[in-house]
Amino acid sequence: MRRGQLVLLVLAVLLAAAWLAPMAWAVATSLKPEGETTAVPSTWIGSEITLDAYALVLGTGGIVKWAINSAVTTLVVTFMTVLLSAMAAYGFARTSFRGRRVLLGLILAGIMVPPQVLIAPLFAEMVALGLVDTWWGIILPQIAAPLIVYILYKFFQEVPPELEQAAFVDGAGRWRVFFTIVLPLSRPVLGAVAIFTFITTWNNFLWPFLVSTDPNTMTLPVGLANVVQGTFGLRYAQIMASVVLAGLPLLVVFVLFQRQIIRGVAHTGLAGQ
Amino acid sequence: MTTTVAAPAATQPVAEVKVARRWTQHGLLFVGPFLLVYLAFLVWPLLDGLRMSLSSVNIAGSNDELVGLANYAEAFGDPRMWRSLWNTIVFTALSTVPLVLLGLLLALLVHNLRFVRWLWRLSFFAPFLLPSAVVALLWRDMIYQPSFGLLNGTLGTDVLWLGDPGVAMWSVVLTTVWWTVGFNFLLYLAALQSIPQPLYEAAAIDGANAWVRLRAITLPMLRRTTGLIIVLQLLASLKVFDQIYLMTGGGPEDSTRSIIEYAYDVGFTGYRIGYASAVSYILFAIIVVISLVQLRLFRKREEGLS
Protein backbone atom coordinates (compact mmCIF):
# COMPACT_ATOMS: atom_id res chain seq x y z
CA MET A 1 0.00 0.00 0.00
CA ARG A 2 1.36 3.41 -0.95
CA ARG A 3 1.88 5.99 1.75
CA GLY A 4 -0.73 8.32 0.25
CA GLN A 5 -3.38 5.61 0.45
CA LEU A 6 -2.48 4.95 4.07
CA VAL A 7 -2.92 8.61 5.01
CA LEU A 8 -6.27 8.75 3.24
CA LEU A 9 -7.34 5.53 4.89
CA VAL A 10 -6.55 6.79 8.38
CA LEU A 11 -8.40 10.01 7.64
CA ALA A 12 -11.41 8.09 6.36
CA VAL A 13 -11.48 5.84 9.41
CA LEU A 14 -11.41 8.82 11.77
CA LEU A 15 -14.10 10.74 9.89
CA ALA A 16 -16.33 7.71 9.49
CA ALA A 17 -16.01 6.98 13.21
CA ALA A 18 -17.05 10.55 14.01
CA TRP A 19 -19.97 10.27 11.60
CA LEU A 20 -21.18 6.96 12.99
CA ALA A 21 -20.66 7.87 16.65
CA PRO A 22 -24.02 9.64 17.21
CA MET A 23 -25.95 6.67 15.82
CA ALA A 24 -23.83 4.22 17.81
CA TRP A 25 -24.50 6.31 20.92
CA ALA A 26 -28.26 6.03 20.36
CA VAL A 27 -27.99 2.26 20.02
CA ALA A 28 -25.72 2.02 23.07
CA THR A 29 -28.14 4.06 25.20
CA SER A 30 -31.13 2.02 24.07
CA LEU A 31 -29.40 -1.17 25.29
CA LYS A 32 -28.65 0.12 28.79
CA PRO A 33 -30.79 -0.50 31.86
CA GLU A 34 -33.01 2.58 32.29
CA GLY A 35 -31.36 3.66 35.53
CA GLU A 36 -27.92 4.02 33.94
CA THR A 37 -28.71 6.19 30.92
CA THR A 38 -28.19 9.48 32.74
CA ALA A 39 -25.15 8.42 34.75
CA VAL A 40 -22.26 10.91 34.85
CA PRO A 41 -19.63 10.24 33.64
CA SER A 42 -21.48 8.40 30.91
CA THR A 43 -20.22 5.08 29.59
CA TRP A 44 -20.79 3.39 26.25
CA ILE A 45 -21.81 0.07 27.80
CA GLY A 46 -23.92 -0.31 30.93
CA SER A 47 -23.68 -2.97 33.62
CA GLU A 48 -25.69 -5.26 31.36
CA ILE A 49 -27.01 -5.27 27.82
CA THR A 50 -30.78 -5.46 27.84
CA LEU A 51 -33.59 -5.28 25.30
CA ASP A 52 -36.09 -4.14 27.94
CA ALA A 53 -36.48 -0.71 26.38
CA TYR A 54 -37.36 -2.23 23.01
CA ALA A 55 -39.88 -4.59 24.57
CA LEU A 56 -41.54 -1.67 26.36
CA VAL A 57 -41.60 0.58 23.31
CA LEU A 58 -43.00 -2.11 21.03
CA GLY A 59 -45.49 -3.24 23.67
CA THR A 60 -46.89 0.05 24.89
CA GLY A 61 -46.15 2.75 22.36
CA GLY A 62 -47.88 3.54 19.08
CA ILE A 63 -44.72 2.91 17.12
CA VAL A 64 -46.06 -0.11 15.22
CA LYS A 65 -49.17 1.82 14.23
CA TRP A 66 -47.09 4.81 13.10
CA ALA A 67 -44.84 2.55 11.07
CA ILE A 68 -47.91 1.16 9.31
CA ASN A 69 -49.23 4.68 8.66
CA SER A 70 -45.83 5.70 7.31
CA ALA A 71 -45.56 2.61 5.10
CA VAL A 72 -49.06 2.99 3.65
CA THR A 73 -48.89 6.73 2.98
CA THR A 74 -45.34 6.56 1.61
CA LEU A 75 -46.11 3.67 -0.74
CA VAL A 76 -49.28 5.34 -2.03
CA VAL A 77 -47.50 8.69 -2.53
CA THR A 78 -44.59 6.99 -4.33
CA PHE A 79 -46.82 4.90 -6.58
CA MET A 80 -49.17 7.73 -7.47
CA THR A 81 -46.37 10.26 -7.96
CA VAL A 82 -44.55 7.97 -10.38
CA LEU A 83 -47.70 6.95 -12.26
CA LEU A 84 -49.33 10.39 -12.57
CA SER A 85 -46.04 12.17 -13.27
CA ALA A 86 -45.03 9.63 -15.92
CA MET A 87 -48.41 9.96 -17.62
CA ALA A 88 -48.25 13.75 -17.57
CA ALA A 89 -44.64 13.84 -18.71
CA TYR A 90 -45.43 11.46 -21.57
CA GLY A 91 -48.44 13.53 -22.55
CA PHE A 92 -46.34 16.70 -22.70
CA ALA A 93 -43.43 15.05 -24.51
CA ARG A 94 -45.34 13.02 -27.07
CA THR A 95 -48.75 14.52 -27.77
CA SER A 96 -49.99 17.89 -28.81
CA PHE A 97 -53.20 19.47 -27.63
CA ARG A 98 -54.61 22.90 -27.11
CA GLY A 99 -52.87 24.74 -24.28
CA ARG A 100 -50.03 22.23 -24.05
CA ARG A 101 -47.28 24.83 -23.83
CA VAL A 102 -49.17 26.96 -21.31
CA LEU A 103 -49.87 23.99 -19.05
CA LEU A 104 -46.29 22.79 -19.28
CA GLY A 105 -45.10 26.27 -18.34
CA LEU A 106 -47.52 26.34 -15.43
CA ILE A 107 -46.16 23.05 -14.11
CA LEU A 108 -42.50 23.97 -14.60
CA ALA A 109 -43.06 27.25 -12.73
CA GLY A 110 -44.38 25.19 -9.81
CA ILE A 111 -40.89 23.74 -9.25
CA MET A 112 -40.05 27.05 -7.60
CA VAL A 113 -42.86 26.78 -5.05
CA PRO A 114 -41.64 25.31 -1.75
CA PRO A 115 -44.41 23.31 -0.05
CA GLN A 116 -43.39 24.93 3.25
CA VAL A 117 -44.84 28.30 2.25
CA LEU A 118 -48.22 26.73 1.49
CA ILE A 119 -48.89 25.29 4.95
CA ALA A 120 -51.53 27.82 6.00
CA PRO A 121 -53.79 27.72 2.90
CA LEU A 122 -53.22 23.98 2.47
CA PHE A 123 -54.32 23.33 6.03
CA ALA A 124 -57.41 25.49 5.52
CA GLU A 125 -58.17 23.49 2.38
CA MET A 126 -57.82 20.19 4.27
CA VAL A 127 -60.19 21.43 6.97
CA ALA A 128 -62.70 22.37 4.27
CA LEU A 129 -62.36 18.97 2.61
CA GLY A 130 -62.59 17.13 5.93
CA LEU A 131 -59.24 15.42 5.34
CA VAL A 132 -57.49 16.40 8.58
CA ASP A 133 -56.41 13.25 10.45
CA THR A 134 -56.79 10.99 7.41
CA TRP A 135 -54.33 9.12 5.23
CA TRP A 136 -55.54 11.05 2.18
CA GLY A 137 -54.86 14.31 3.96
CA ILE A 138 -51.24 13.24 4.35
CA ILE A 139 -51.00 11.77 0.85
CA LEU A 140 -52.65 14.15 -1.61
CA PRO A 141 -50.53 17.32 -1.27
CA GLN A 142 -47.35 15.26 -1.57
CA ILE A 143 -48.33 13.91 -5.00
CA ALA A 144 -48.31 17.35 -6.61
CA ALA A 145 -44.57 17.19 -7.39
CA PRO A 146 -43.80 19.17 -10.57
CA LEU A 147 -40.09 18.39 -10.33
CA ILE A 148 -40.75 14.71 -11.07
CA VAL A 149 -42.86 15.62 -14.11
CA TYR A 150 -40.00 17.77 -15.38
CA ILE A 151 -37.38 15.03 -14.92
CA LEU A 152 -39.51 12.45 -16.72
CA TYR A 153 -40.47 14.95 -19.43
CA LYS A 154 -36.81 15.52 -20.23
CA PHE A 155 -36.25 11.77 -20.26
CA PHE A 156 -39.15 11.01 -22.62
CA GLN A 157 -38.01 13.73 -24.99
CA GLU A 158 -34.73 11.93 -25.48
CA VAL A 159 -36.19 8.49 -26.07
CA PRO A 160 -36.19 7.84 -29.83
CA PRO A 161 -39.81 7.51 -31.02
CA GLU A 162 -39.19 4.76 -33.60
CA LEU A 163 -40.13 1.90 -31.30
CA GLU A 164 -43.45 3.50 -30.43
CA GLN A 165 -44.12 4.33 -34.09
CA ALA A 166 -43.56 0.72 -35.01
CA ALA A 167 -46.08 -0.35 -32.39
CA PHE A 168 -48.64 2.13 -33.72
CA VAL A 169 -48.19 0.73 -37.23
CA ASP A 170 -48.85 -2.70 -35.75
CA GLY A 171 -52.16 -1.32 -34.49
CA ALA A 172 -51.44 -0.76 -30.82
CA GLY A 173 -53.26 2.14 -29.15
CA ARG A 174 -51.50 4.94 -27.34
CA TRP A 175 -52.34 3.65 -23.88
CA ARG A 176 -51.12 0.16 -24.68
CA VAL A 177 -47.92 1.61 -26.10
CA PHE A 178 -47.47 3.68 -22.94
CA PHE A 179 -48.02 0.84 -20.51
CA THR A 180 -46.38 -2.04 -22.39
CA ILE A 181 -43.50 -0.30 -24.20
CA VAL A 182 -42.72 3.12 -22.76
CA LEU A 183 -42.99 2.37 -19.04
CA PRO A 184 -40.94 -0.87 -19.16
CA LEU A 185 -38.28 0.93 -21.23
CA SER A 186 -38.10 3.68 -18.63
CA ARG A 187 -37.56 1.42 -15.65
CA PRO A 188 -34.19 2.92 -14.60
CA VAL A 189 -35.39 6.52 -14.48
CA LEU A 190 -38.71 5.52 -12.92
CA GLY A 191 -36.79 3.60 -10.27
CA ALA A 192 -34.62 6.62 -9.60
CA VAL A 193 -37.51 9.02 -9.06
CA ALA A 194 -39.42 6.38 -7.08
CA ILE A 195 -36.50 5.93 -4.68
CA PHE A 196 -36.10 9.68 -4.31
CA THR A 197 -39.83 10.14 -3.68
CA PHE A 198 -39.91 7.26 -1.22
CA ILE A 199 -37.06 8.67 0.90
CA THR A 200 -38.36 12.24 0.98
CA THR A 201 -41.92 11.13 1.74
CA TRP A 202 -40.92 8.63 4.43
CA ASN A 203 -38.91 11.35 6.18
CA ASN A 204 -41.27 14.27 5.53
CA PHE A 205 -42.15 15.98 8.78
CA LEU A 206 -43.82 19.39 8.48
CA TRP A 207 -46.92 18.47 6.45
CA PRO A 208 -47.82 15.18 8.20
CA PHE A 209 -47.16 16.95 11.49
CA LEU A 210 -49.68 19.68 10.67
CA VAL A 211 -52.38 17.46 9.22
CA SER A 212 -52.37 14.71 11.85
CA THR A 213 -53.38 15.58 15.37
CA ASP A 214 -54.72 12.14 16.24
CA PRO A 215 -51.97 9.68 17.33
CA ASN A 216 -53.80 6.98 15.35
CA THR A 217 -53.09 8.63 11.99
CA MET A 218 -49.59 9.94 12.70
CA THR A 219 -46.59 8.86 10.66
CA LEU A 220 -43.43 7.58 12.30
CA PRO A 221 -41.54 10.92 12.46
CA VAL A 222 -44.63 12.77 13.72
CA GLY A 223 -45.47 10.20 16.36
CA LEU A 224 -41.88 10.18 17.47
CA ALA A 225 -41.77 13.95 17.87
CA ASN A 226 -45.23 14.42 19.36
CA VAL A 227 -46.00 11.45 21.50
CA VAL A 228 -42.87 9.58 22.53
CA GLN A 229 -41.85 12.43 24.79
CA GLY A 230 -45.19 12.42 26.55
CA THR A 231 -45.37 8.64 26.86
CA PHE A 232 -41.90 7.89 28.10
CA GLY A 233 -41.05 11.13 29.87
CA LEU A 234 -37.37 11.25 30.65
CA ARG A 235 -36.73 7.53 30.24
CA TYR A 236 -33.93 7.84 27.75
CA ALA A 237 -33.39 4.16 26.99
CA GLN A 238 -36.96 3.99 25.74
CA ILE A 239 -36.70 7.23 23.81
CA MET A 240 -33.52 6.03 22.13
CA ALA A 241 -35.08 2.63 21.43
CA SER A 242 -37.89 4.51 19.64
CA VAL A 243 -35.31 6.59 17.78
CA VAL A 244 -33.43 3.48 16.66
CA LEU A 245 -36.61 1.71 15.56
CA ALA A 246 -37.76 4.77 13.62
CA GLY A 247 -34.40 5.27 11.94
CA LEU A 248 -33.74 1.65 11.11
CA PRO A 249 -36.10 0.88 8.19
CA LEU A 250 -34.48 3.21 5.64
CA LEU A 251 -30.97 2.25 6.77
CA VAL A 252 -31.75 -1.43 6.21
CA VAL A 253 -33.24 -0.64 2.81
CA PHE A 254 -30.13 1.38 2.00
CA VAL A 255 -27.73 -1.42 2.88
CA LEU A 256 -29.73 -3.78 0.67
CA PHE A 257 -30.10 -1.46 -2.33
CA GLN A 258 -27.11 0.82 -1.96
CA ARG A 259 -26.25 1.08 -5.65
CA GLN A 260 -29.80 1.84 -6.81
CA ILE A 261 -30.40 4.35 -4.03
CA ILE A 262 -27.20 6.26 -4.70
CA ARG A 263 -28.03 6.42 -8.39
CA GLY A 264 -31.61 7.46 -7.64
CA VAL A 265 -30.64 10.22 -5.24
CA ALA A 266 -27.76 11.57 -7.32
CA HIS A 267 -29.80 11.46 -10.53
CA THR A 268 -32.92 13.08 -9.14
CA GLY A 269 -31.06 15.49 -6.89
CA LEU A 270 -29.28 17.17 -9.78
CA ALA A 271 -31.70 16.49 -12.61
CA GLY A 272 -34.06 19.21 -11.50
CA GLN A 273 -31.65 21.94 -12.46
CA MET B 1 -38.56 22.88 -25.51
CA THR B 2 -39.15 21.20 -28.82
CA THR B 3 -41.25 18.12 -29.26
CA THR B 4 -40.97 15.27 -31.65
CA VAL B 5 -44.61 15.20 -32.67
CA ALA B 6 -44.79 14.17 -36.32
CA ALA B 7 -46.86 16.54 -38.43
CA PRO B 8 -48.71 14.70 -41.19
CA ALA B 9 -47.86 15.99 -44.64
CA ALA B 10 -50.57 16.11 -47.31
CA THR B 11 -48.90 13.50 -49.46
CA GLN B 12 -48.54 10.89 -46.75
CA PRO B 13 -50.29 7.59 -47.26
CA VAL B 14 -53.38 6.91 -45.18
CA ALA B 15 -51.65 4.52 -42.78
CA GLU B 16 -49.07 7.12 -41.85
CA VAL B 17 -51.67 9.80 -41.26
CA LYS B 18 -53.42 7.40 -38.94
CA VAL B 19 -50.15 6.84 -37.10
CA ALA B 20 -49.60 10.56 -36.83
CA ARG B 21 -53.07 11.01 -35.39
CA ARG B 22 -52.38 8.40 -32.73
CA TRP B 23 -49.43 10.50 -31.69
CA THR B 24 -51.68 13.37 -30.76
CA GLN B 25 -54.62 11.50 -29.31
CA HIS B 26 -55.38 11.42 -25.62
CA GLY B 27 -52.94 14.19 -24.73
CA LEU B 28 -55.19 15.74 -22.12
CA LEU B 29 -56.12 12.35 -20.69
CA PHE B 30 -52.44 11.69 -19.99
CA VAL B 31 -51.88 15.09 -18.46
CA GLY B 32 -55.26 15.39 -16.75
CA PRO B 33 -54.88 13.32 -13.57
CA PHE B 34 -51.65 15.00 -12.52
CA LEU B 35 -53.04 18.36 -13.52
CA LEU B 36 -56.06 17.91 -11.25
CA VAL B 37 -53.90 17.09 -8.22
CA TYR B 38 -51.51 19.90 -9.11
CA LEU B 39 -54.27 22.49 -9.45
CA ALA B 40 -56.00 21.36 -6.27
CA PHE B 41 -52.97 21.07 -3.98
CA LEU B 42 -50.42 23.48 -5.35
CA VAL B 43 -51.97 26.15 -7.57
CA TRP B 44 -55.10 26.62 -5.48
CA PRO B 45 -53.32 26.96 -2.11
CA LEU B 46 -50.80 29.27 -3.76
CA LEU B 47 -53.59 31.61 -4.89
CA ASP B 48 -55.63 31.15 -1.72
CA GLY B 49 -52.52 31.90 0.35
CA LEU B 50 -52.09 35.15 -1.51
CA ARG B 51 -55.70 36.06 -0.80
CA MET B 52 -55.33 35.07 2.85
CA SER B 53 -52.21 37.20 3.18
CA LEU B 54 -54.42 40.16 2.25
CA SER B 55 -57.07 39.24 4.82
CA SER B 56 -57.53 39.00 8.56
CA VAL B 57 -58.69 35.36 8.48
CA ASN B 58 -57.99 33.18 11.52
CA ILE B 59 -57.45 29.44 11.73
CA ALA B 60 -61.16 28.74 12.26
CA GLY B 61 -61.86 30.45 8.92
CA SER B 62 -63.77 33.30 10.54
CA ASN B 63 -63.10 37.05 10.63
CA ASP B 64 -62.28 36.73 6.94
CA GLU B 65 -62.11 40.31 5.70
CA LEU B 66 -59.80 41.84 3.17
CA VAL B 67 -57.38 44.21 4.84
CA GLY B 68 -55.22 45.10 1.84
CA LEU B 69 -51.53 45.17 2.56
CA ALA B 70 -51.98 45.57 6.31
CA ASN B 71 -50.43 42.15 7.06
CA TYR B 72 -47.36 42.97 5.00
CA ALA B 73 -47.06 46.39 6.59
CA GLU B 74 -47.31 44.75 10.01
CA ALA B 75 -44.72 42.13 9.07
CA PHE B 76 -42.20 44.71 7.90
CA GLY B 77 -42.60 46.50 11.23
CA ASP B 78 -42.49 43.30 13.30
CA PRO B 79 -39.16 42.84 15.11
CA ARG B 80 -39.81 39.11 15.61
CA MET B 81 -40.35 38.68 11.86
CA TRP B 82 -37.05 40.46 11.19
CA ARG B 83 -35.35 38.41 13.88
CA SER B 84 -36.54 35.11 12.38
CA LEU B 85 -35.67 36.24 8.86
CA TRP B 86 -32.20 37.20 10.09
CA ASN B 87 -31.83 33.85 11.88
CA THR B 88 -32.79 32.09 8.66
CA ILE B 89 -30.17 34.00 6.70
CA VAL B 90 -27.54 33.35 9.37
CA PHE B 91 -28.40 29.67 9.38
CA THR B 92 -28.22 29.58 5.58
CA ALA B 93 -24.83 31.30 5.50
CA LEU B 94 -23.36 29.21 8.33
CA SER B 95 -24.62 25.89 7.00
CA THR B 96 -24.04 26.30 3.26
CA VAL B 97 -20.27 26.79 3.50
CA PRO B 98 -19.44 23.62 5.48
CA LEU B 99 -22.13 21.58 3.71
CA VAL B 100 -20.63 22.31 0.29
CA LEU B 101 -16.94 22.24 1.27
CA LEU B 102 -17.18 19.16 3.46
CA GLY B 103 -19.33 17.42 0.87
CA LEU B 104 -16.58 18.02 -1.68
CA LEU B 105 -13.76 16.95 0.64
CA LEU B 106 -15.52 13.75 1.71
CA ALA B 107 -16.25 12.91 -1.93
CA LEU B 108 -12.62 13.52 -2.95
CA LEU B 109 -11.49 11.35 -0.05
CA VAL B 110 -13.79 8.43 -0.82
CA HIS B 111 -13.22 8.72 -4.58
CA ASN B 112 -9.47 8.29 -4.07
CA LEU B 113 -9.71 5.37 -1.65
CA ARG B 114 -9.37 1.86 -2.99
CA PHE B 115 -10.67 -0.10 -0.01
CA VAL B 116 -14.22 -0.78 1.21
CA ARG B 117 -15.72 2.21 -0.57
CA TRP B 118 -19.21 1.04 0.32
CA LEU B 119 -18.36 1.43 4.00
CA TRP B 120 -17.32 5.08 3.64
CA ARG B 121 -20.32 5.83 1.46
CA LEU B 122 -22.60 4.24 4.05
CA SER B 123 -20.98 6.14 6.94
CA PHE B 124 -21.27 9.59 5.42
CA PHE B 125 -24.61 9.14 3.68
CA ALA B 126 -26.50 7.16 6.33
CA PRO B 127 -27.52 10.15 8.50
CA PHE B 128 -29.28 11.72 5.50
CA LEU B 129 -31.67 8.75 5.54
CA LEU B 130 -32.83 9.45 9.09
CA PRO B 131 -36.10 11.34 9.67
CA SER B 132 -35.65 14.81 11.16
CA ALA B 133 -37.40 13.71 14.35
CA VAL B 134 -34.86 10.93 14.88
CA VAL B 135 -31.97 13.33 14.35
CA ALA B 136 -33.44 16.01 16.59
CA LEU B 137 -34.30 13.73 19.53
CA LEU B 138 -30.94 11.99 19.32
CA TRP B 139 -28.91 15.21 19.32
CA ARG B 140 -31.06 17.11 21.81
CA ASP B 141 -31.43 14.37 24.40
CA MET B 142 -28.23 12.38 24.12
CA ILE B 143 -25.55 14.56 22.53
CA TYR B 144 -26.19 18.18 23.46
CA GLN B 145 -27.68 17.31 26.86
CA PRO B 146 -25.38 19.28 29.19
CA SER B 147 -24.70 16.75 31.97
CA PHE B 148 -24.72 13.24 30.49
CA GLY B 149 -24.66 14.16 26.79
CA LEU B 150 -21.97 12.69 24.55
CA LEU B 151 -20.40 16.03 23.59
CA ASN B 152 -19.69 17.50 27.00
CA GLY B 153 -18.78 14.02 28.27
CA THR B 154 -16.24 13.44 25.50
CA LEU B 155 -14.79 16.95 25.43
CA GLY B 156 -14.84 17.43 29.18
CA THR B 157 -16.62 20.76 28.66
CA ASP B 158 -19.58 22.38 30.33
CA VAL B 159 -21.34 24.08 27.41
CA LEU B 160 -25.10 24.66 27.20
CA TRP B 161 -25.20 23.63 23.56
CA LEU B 162 -28.88 24.41 23.05
CA GLY B 163 -29.47 26.60 26.09
CA ASP B 164 -27.00 29.39 25.41
CA PRO B 165 -28.31 31.99 22.92
CA GLY B 166 -24.78 32.54 21.65
CA VAL B 167 -24.17 28.85 20.98
CA ALA B 168 -27.54 27.37 20.00
CA MET B 169 -27.43 28.38 16.33
CA TRP B 170 -23.97 26.85 15.94
CA SER B 171 -25.25 23.64 17.49
CA VAL B 172 -28.19 23.57 15.08
CA VAL B 173 -25.75 24.07 12.20
CA LEU B 174 -23.47 21.27 13.46
CA THR B 175 -26.39 18.83 13.63
CA THR B 176 -27.57 19.90 10.18
CA VAL B 177 -24.11 19.38 8.67
CA TRP B 178 -23.87 15.91 10.20
CA TRP B 179 -27.38 15.08 9.01
CA THR B 180 -27.40 16.35 5.43
CA VAL B 181 -23.81 16.60 4.15
CA GLY B 182 -24.20 13.08 2.77
CA PHE B 183 -26.50 14.40 0.05
CA ASN B 184 -23.92 16.83 -1.34
CA PHE B 185 -21.28 14.16 -0.84
CA LEU B 186 -23.23 11.80 -3.11
CA LEU B 187 -23.76 14.46 -5.77
CA TYR B 188 -20.04 15.26 -5.79
CA LEU B 189 -19.15 11.57 -5.86
CA ALA B 190 -21.35 11.06 -8.93
CA ALA B 191 -19.76 14.11 -10.60
CA LEU B 192 -16.24 12.84 -9.85
CA GLN B 193 -17.03 9.48 -11.39
CA SER B 194 -18.19 11.14 -14.60
CA ILE B 195 -14.89 13.00 -15.22
CA PRO B 196 -13.26 11.25 -18.22
CA GLN B 197 -10.35 9.09 -17.04
CA PRO B 198 -8.10 9.87 -20.11
CA LEU B 199 -7.75 13.45 -18.83
CA TYR B 200 -5.95 12.13 -15.77
CA GLU B 201 -3.89 9.64 -17.76
CA ALA B 202 -2.69 12.36 -20.11
CA ALA B 203 -1.81 14.59 -17.18
CA ALA B 204 0.06 11.76 -15.48
CA ILE B 205 2.12 11.20 -18.64
CA ASP B 206 2.95 14.90 -18.60
CA GLY B 207 4.25 14.38 -15.09
CA ALA B 208 1.55 16.31 -13.22
CA ASN B 209 1.41 15.34 -9.56
CA ALA B 210 -1.80 14.74 -7.62
CA TRP B 211 -2.08 18.34 -6.45
CA VAL B 212 -1.72 19.72 -9.97
CA ARG B 213 -4.24 17.20 -11.31
CA LEU B 214 -6.70 18.28 -8.63
CA ARG B 215 -6.29 21.98 -9.41
CA ALA B 216 -6.08 21.70 -13.19
CA ILE B 217 -8.61 18.96 -13.91
CA THR B 218 -10.83 17.93 -11.01
CA LEU B 219 -11.86 21.30 -9.60
CA PRO B 220 -12.57 22.95 -12.99
CA MET B 221 -14.60 19.90 -14.03
CA LEU B 222 -16.66 20.21 -10.84
CA ARG B 223 -17.45 23.88 -11.30
CA ARG B 224 -20.93 23.37 -12.73
CA THR B 225 -21.82 20.76 -10.11
CA THR B 226 -20.63 23.14 -7.40
CA GLY B 227 -22.84 25.91 -8.72
CA LEU B 228 -25.85 23.62 -8.69
CA ILE B 229 -25.09 22.30 -5.22
CA ILE B 230 -24.70 25.81 -3.81
CA VAL B 231 -28.06 26.90 -5.20
CA LEU B 232 -29.81 23.72 -4.04
CA GLN B 233 -28.24 24.19 -0.62
CA LEU B 234 -29.26 27.84 -0.34
CA LEU B 235 -32.85 26.99 -1.26
CA ALA B 236 -32.94 24.05 1.17
CA SER B 237 -31.41 26.01 4.06
CA LEU B 238 -33.82 28.94 3.67
CA LYS B 239 -36.69 26.50 4.27
CA VAL B 240 -35.25 25.16 7.53
CA PHE B 241 -37.84 24.17 10.11
CA ASP B 242 -37.79 20.57 11.40
CA GLN B 243 -34.56 20.26 13.32
CA ILE B 244 -34.81 23.75 14.83
CA TYR B 245 -38.43 23.37 15.89
CA LEU B 246 -37.73 19.96 17.41
CA MET B 247 -34.43 20.78 19.13
CA THR B 248 -34.86 24.32 20.44
CA GLY B 249 -38.43 25.33 19.59
CA GLY B 250 -36.87 28.56 18.30
CA GLY B 251 -35.21 29.46 21.57
CA PRO B 252 -33.37 30.36 23.65
CA GLU B 253 -34.58 33.97 23.43
CA ASP B 254 -35.67 33.54 19.77
CA SER B 255 -32.02 33.01 18.82
CA THR B 256 -32.79 30.08 16.49
CA ARG B 257 -36.37 30.75 15.35
CA SER B 258 -36.53 30.44 11.54
CA ILE B 259 -38.96 32.25 9.27
CA ILE B 260 -40.96 29.09 8.50
CA GLU B 261 -41.23 28.44 12.21
CA TYR B 262 -42.41 31.99 12.79
CA ALA B 263 -45.10 31.55 10.13
CA TYR B 264 -46.09 28.28 11.83
CA ASP B 265 -46.16 29.98 15.23
CA VAL B 266 -48.35 32.92 14.28
CA GLY B 267 -50.62 30.73 12.14
CA PHE B 268 -51.01 27.52 14.09
CA THR B 269 -50.45 28.56 17.69
CA GLY B 270 -51.42 32.22 17.30
CA TYR B 271 -54.33 31.31 14.97
CA ARG B 272 -53.62 34.22 12.60
CA ILE B 273 -53.58 32.37 9.28
CA GLY B 274 -53.75 35.60 7.27
CA TYR B 275 -50.67 37.05 8.92
CA ALA B 276 -48.89 33.68 8.68
CA SER B 277 -49.53 33.66 4.93
CA ALA B 278 -48.03 37.12 4.57
CA VAL B 279 -44.89 36.00 6.45
CA SER B 280 -44.69 32.89 4.24
CA TYR B 281 -44.99 35.00 1.10
CA ILE B 282 -42.09 37.19 2.16
CA LEU B 283 -39.90 34.07 2.24
CA PHE B 284 -41.47 32.86 -0.99
CA ALA B 285 -40.51 36.12 -2.71
CA ILE B 286 -36.89 35.63 -1.63
CA ILE B 287 -36.88 32.05 -2.90
CA VAL B 288 -38.38 33.06 -6.25
CA VAL B 289 -35.72 35.75 -6.70
CA ILE B 290 -32.93 33.23 -5.99
CA SER B 291 -34.50 30.69 -8.35
CA LEU B 292 -34.80 33.24 -11.16
CA VAL B 293 -31.24 34.47 -10.69
CA GLN B 294 -30.09 30.85 -10.80
CA LEU B 295 -32.07 30.16 -13.99
CA ARG B 296 -30.44 33.17 -15.66
CA LEU B 297 -26.97 32.26 -14.47
CA PHE B 298 -27.11 28.67 -15.65
CA ARG B 299 -28.83 29.43 -18.92
CA LYS B 300 -26.11 31.98 -19.72
CA ARG B 301 -23.42 29.48 -18.90
CA GLU B 302 -25.01 26.84 -21.10
CA GLU B 303 -25.26 29.28 -24.00
CA GLY B 304 -21.66 30.25 -23.42
CA LEU B 305 -20.60 26.64 -23.75
CA SER B 306 -22.36 25.95 -27.01
Automatic annotation (TrEMBL), chain A:
> Highest taxon of the source?
Bacteria
The primary location reported for this protein is membrane
| Matches recorded under SUPFAM superfamilies | MetI-like
What this protein is called in its record is Multiple sugar transport system permease protein
The record's annotation in InterPro entries points to:
MetI-like, MetI-like_sf
Task: Kindly state which keywords UniProt assigns to this record, in alphabetical order.
Answer: Cell membrane, Membrane, Signal, Sugar transport, Transmembrane, Transmembrane helix, Transport
Task: Say if the entry is tagged with keyword Membrane.
Answer: yes
Q: Which residues form the signal peptide?
A: 1-26
PROSITE patterns associated with the record: ABC_TM1
Q: Which family does it belong to?
A: Belongs to the binding-protein-dependent transport system permease family.
Task: List locations, semicolon-separated.
Answer: Cell membrane
Q: Which PANTHER family match?
A: ABC TRANSPORTER PERMEASE PROTEIN MG189-RELATED, ABC TRANSPORTER PERMEASE PROTEIN MG189-RELATED-RELATED
Pfam hit, one:
BPD_transp_1
Residue stretches spanning the membrane:
66-90, 102-123, 135-156, 177-199, 236-257
Q: How does it sit in the membrane?
A: Multi-pass membrane protein
Recorded GO cellular component terms are:
plasma membrane
The Gene Ontology biological process annotation of the record reads:
transmembrane transport
TrEMBL record, chain B:
Q: Where does the record place the ABC transmembrane type-1 domain?
A: 85-294
Q: What is the lineage of its organism?
A: Bacteria, Bacillati, Actinomycetota, Actinomycetes, Streptosporangiales
Q: Which UniProt keywords apply?
A: Cell membrane, Membrane, Sugar transport, Transmembrane, Transmembrane helix, Transport
Alphabetized InterPro entries for the sequence: ABC_transporter_permease (IPR051393), MetI-like (IPR000515), MetI-like_sf (IPR035906)
Which topology term describes how it sits in the membrane? Multi-pass membrane protein
Location comes to: Cell membrane
What organism is listed for this UniProt entry?
Answer: Nonomuraea dietziae
Q: What is this protein called?
A: Multiple sugar transport system permease protein
Q: Does the keyword Nucleus apply?
A: no
